[in-house]
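Example record

One chain of 103 residues, shown exactly as stored in the release files.
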Amino acid sequence: MVVLVVVLVVGMWEVKTSSAAPTAAECKEERRLGINVCQPVVYGKDPSPACCERVRVTHLECVCPVITPKLAALIDVNKAVRLIEGCGRKVPRHYKCGAITTP
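Predicted structure tokens for this chain:
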């Protein structure tokens, strides 16, 4: 569960403009890939280049719907923002993604 939380938060910001929204199956695959490559972050490691790449390409449409209040309670938003920005992805201020709002 903690791995899912980190991956979801790590991949959740910067609105992407694409012509077609990902399908449910594509979203499920994006989340699976993120969990696999970003798992070491849960154990205090820095994100790997592969994890950062996943952070940069993950669609908001795949992440925000699964951020429930219960899941949001497990997330340190400030730490998540630092990790995301460290991977080169912008995090807008006061952005609402599921049950989380960025500082």
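Notes: Confidence is low (pLDDT under 50) at residues 13-18.
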